[in-house]
Amino acid sequence: MKQNNKILVTGASGNLGSKVATRLIAMGNLVRVSGRSAHKMNGFIETAEILLGNLENEAALQSNMEGVKSVFLVLPHLEKLTLKEFSDLFIEKAKLAGVSHVVNISNCTLARWGKPTILLEFEQHLNKAHGLNIKHLRCANFFENLNWGINTPYKEDIKLPYISSFEIAHIAASYLVDANFTGISTDELMGREDYTMGDFARMLGMRYKRLPMK
pLDDT tens across 160-174, in order? Predict the structure, then answer.
């Protein structure tokens, strides 16, 4: 089998995936970017191999994995497969391609309304893989999401962990390149301190208005 030397970044047309791919390219790695939106990946035309397609499609997923050593995995929006079906398909194709390491993006919120979140459930399905080294990155809220508006359904005084997506991209890229983790492991990326919505409002010199929960 030909030695795998590329790093696959799924969800490269998105906020976090695009930053991970950019960081990997800047580090001098051979990078393949995958996504559904061609125009959102135009910036990688001269710097990375671009593959378009739906990862729920077996042939598309297989072509994405060929010649790849490490994968940055963002759970795609599933329209046909269940979480278990997609995780089983991903594991199968990763093993066939000789992928050794996977960095899976997750979230530090593990339950909502007494039920496991989708990302936690996805973690649990991936954890059944034998022979793959998987690192789950459970991330806090992104500072960049505040660009959408300071007013949210959160109570003004609830402290929440925040981190920059650029920090996450730096950590994920390092794991993908070094490939120095073994088995199944988890990192919680919480940022340096917690903030309330009131804190952010005061920093911006404005009054916080709590929105109703939809």
Answer: 999 999 999 999 999
